[in-house]
Write a structure and sequence with these properties.
The protein is α+β, with helices and mostly antiparallel strands. It folds into 4 domains: 4-140, Schlafen, AAA domain (Methyltransferase, Cobalt-precorrin-4 Transmethylase, Domain 2), CATH 3.30.950; 145-208, no CATH class; 215-390, Heat Shock Protein 90 (2-Layer Sandwich); 396-470, Arc Repressor Mutant, subunit A, CATH 1.10.10.10. It has helices at residues 4-12, 27-39, 62-75, 127-139, 159-171, 183-189, 200-206, 243-256, 279-292, 339-347, 357-367, 392-395, 401-409, 418-425, 431-443, 465-470; strands spanning 18-21, 43-47, 76-77, 84-90, 93-100, 109-110, 113-118, 121-124, 193-194, 197-198, 219-224, 233-239, 260-264, 270-275, 302-306, 310-315, 374-378, 381-387, 415-416, 447-450, 457-460.
């Protein structure tokens, strides 16, 4: 099955952050393109796809994907830990997707040369570009996660979890260690043991009690009785153990404090229980929060707030420069704030599609008939809000006459462009207001955005039609 986020990129075509390669045998082209993505803003490489975005799937299987992954890690230097390679199949055809985040250790080289993107082309970096990358790397402050955790001792580490990480990574074909039984060898391979010292990322990920040295790792989880903050709460916990354990405990907290919704067939026969919030969306939101939070500030942290009709996930990080909250709902560059931490989440199977996690949250919520999730980026951090399933009239704000006219006119699956909307329904308002109208309907999951740029169109979903037909 090909994820919707991948389909959206195939429809958008090639560009600075997307490349289509039909033949998996052209490894040199694959490696040059991946190297260029690492030296730029990241991107996605689609193998088994023609220039028009059609999946051809020539000679692709799981072994090919694993070979590409292994060879890329060996061919590109410095070691690019966050490369994600996945294979998808449908109707007898397959494609391999290589997701590449923006590199944090530039310049990256393939066969001794650096490459960069120029539009949809991959070019060798000239001397001026290469000199600039080297100069930027020289003055760049060492990341918090790479600094030594001076008070961390070997006895503080959970060695069983480290060995489990190595075992799962090798079984999934996502990493190979020189000695998976040796704790120091595993940590060295992951970049968590450098020059004989454990890094702060190693502390956060594998220490039994990291909060002793880094109180900002704590996660505060609270379930309120109503839809507002108050002293009247139903559950209240703090999680401050190693990262993966805290992640699991936080997920369990959300699950036990949110109701299941029951569906019935006609005649009252119960069919299934469904969580109020799709587990995949909650899990993805939590993983993003743990991976991208700001660990450098002692006043930082994470908070999970469960209300009657919504779930809020806050972390003390900020969106990367140039990325807006609107970009999170569509294809956007992947710029990992803590790549060493994110790499462990990836090889343990928590991050499946690097750079597409936020799109996946949007698509999953839509598939479950929920309101579109919302991100808020403020000076104190980023908040993701997931909305539970509620009766249609209660979960939407009143729409204006223009929006109501569109909803009354379009049938499920029917599309129109922003220009067509303004011409048919919004002649008396500015282009900016017309686009705001469409964005509000998209956020309410009544319209689905298709394409980008000049090719943007909005497709009517089936949400709300049953109610409107009854009135």
């Amino acid at each position: 099955m090909i994820p919707e986020s991948v389909r959206q990129q195939l429809r958008a075509g090639e560009g600075e952050s997307a490349e289509f390669i039909q033949d998996a045998q052209d490894f040199a082209k694959v490696a040059r393109t991946v190297c260029a993505f690492l030296n730029g803003h990241g991107g996605s490489l689609f193998i088994g796809v023609d220039v028009h975005g059609n999946v051809t799937g020539a000679r692709l299987d799981r072994q090919v994907a694993e070979t590409i992954h292994r060879d890329l890690r060996e061919a590109i230097s410095p070691f690019a830990s966050m490369l994600s390679v996945a294979m998808y199949g449908e109707k007898g055809k397959s494609l391999v997707v290589v997701d590449v985040p923006a590199g944090q250790d530039r310049p990256y080289l393939y066969r001794g040369a650096a490459f960069v993107r120029a539009g949809s082309a991959t070019l060798a970096a000239d001397s001026a570009v290469l000199r600039r990358m080297v100069q930027e790397a020289a003055v760049k402050t060492e990341r918090w996660e790479r600094r030594p955790s001076v008070a961390l001792e070997e006895t503080d580490l959970d060695e069983d979890d480290i060995r489990l990480t190595a075992k799962q990574a090798e079984e999934a074909g996502r990493f190979r260690f020189s000695d998976s039984k040796s704790v120091d060898s595993v940590l060295t391979g992951l970049g968590l043991l450098r020059d004989g010292q454990y890094t702060q990322a190693a502390d956060v990920l594998f220490a039994k009690d990291p909060a002793l040295r880094h109180p900002q790792v704590r996660v505060r989880a609270i379930c309120f009785a109503e839809d507002k903050d108050s002293s009247d709460y139903l559950d209240n916990k703090v999680f401050d153990s190693r990262l993966l354990y805290s992640l699991q405990e936080t997920l369990h907290f959300v699950q036990r404090n949110t109701q299941n919704l029951v569906t019935f067939r006609r005649g009252g026969l119960r069919t299934a229980d469904h969580p109020a919030y799709p587990l995949e969306a909650v899990r993805e939101g939590l993983v993003n929060a743990f991976a991208h939070r700001d660990y450098s500030s002692f006043s930082g942290g994470m908070a999970v707030r469960v209300y009657r009709s919504r779930l809020e996930l806050w972390n003390s990080g900020r969106l990367p420069e140039g990325i807006t909250t609107g970009d999170l709902k569509r294809n956007h560059p992947s710029i990992p704030v803590n790549p060493d931490i994110a790499n462990v989440l990836y090889i343990r199977g928590y991050m499946e599609m690097i750079g597409r996690g936020t799109q996946n949250i949007v698509n999953v919520c839509r598939a479950h008939g929920l309101r579109s999730p919302r991100w808020d980026d403020r000076p104190n951090g980023v908040t993701l809000t997931l909305y539970g399933k509620a009766p249609f009239p209660a979960e939407r704000t009143p729409f204006n006459k223009r929006q109501e006219a569109l909803l009354d006119t379009l049938t499920t699956g029917e599309e129109l462009s922003p220009g067509a909307y303004r011409k048919r329904f919004a002649r008396d308002v500015s282009e900016r207001q017309a686009r705001r109208d469409l964005r509000e309907l998209e956020e309410a999951n009544l319209l689905e955005r298709v394409g980008s740029g000049a090719g943007t169109r909005y497709r009517r979903t089936g949400r709300g039609l049953e109610r409107r037909n009854r009135t």
